[in-house]
Amino acid sequence: MPSRIDKHVLSDAAEALLVYGWLQNLLSLDDSVNILVTNESLENGLIELLLKAKEQIRLSGLFQVPC
Measured between alpha carbons, how far apart are the two ends of the chain, in Å? Predict the structure, then answer.
């Protein structure tokens, strides 16, 4: 993502990453909920969930995600 984008564009990108991972069966709803509820804060849970989605997509080879 470019360095100068507003928070709405960034949140749309995060949402798209999670939806893509879910639609490609790379993230399950159960795993996603577990990640969110086992973290000390919602923010940390979302960060972990986004990192997991990115890694699962990268490992799948379906889409090239920059590191």
Answer: 11
Chain centroid to Cα 10, Å, comes to 12
Six-digit token string for 59: 């490992």
Domain boundaries, the chain: 7-59
Largest CA distance in the chain: 34
In contact, 21 and 56? CB cutoff 8 Å: yes
pLDDT tens digits, residue range 13-44?
Answer: 999 999 999 999 999 999 999 999 999 999 99
- Those residues whose C-beta lies under 8 Å from the C-beta of residue 41, and which sit 6 or more positions away, are none
pLDDT tens digits, 39-49: 999 999 999 99
What is the pTM assigned to this prediction? 0.80
